[in-house]
Fold this protein.
Amino acid sequence: MSLPLPEDYLDLFSKPAFAHLATIMPDGSPHVTPIWIDYDGTYLLVNAAVGRRKNKNMSKRSRVAIDIIDPDYPYRYLAVRGHVAEITTEGGREHLEKLSWRYLGSAYPAHWWHGGENREIFKIAIDRVVTRNLESPAVK
């Protein structure tokens, strides 16, 4: 089961809001990576090239934490703790193209593709949600 995200934070998935993904290394230490993020109404979606460290970590240790910062106001963010509910390669490249249009405003750059690269989509079930929207700091 996956908790829903608050409706007043869903706008983060229509603009280029970068996320930070925390996974767990084999020795138990954290591994944090900035990522593009998506939401399908049930799961957070993380798209990554097969063989990357984050993929290996999530495949072996499913617990993750993700924060998404509003690019228009960095004192507004959404933080999630969850677990990998599903991993698929189906539609990975197409999903990356969709993300590229949101984050870059264009198709995924051809020179970013590595020969024979395959993509995985990690569906993250949401276990806990924390939001913050701090008032603007005083300007002196």
The longest strand covers residues 119-133. The mean pLDDT is 93. The two ends are 47 Å apart (CA to CA). The chain has one domain: 7-133.
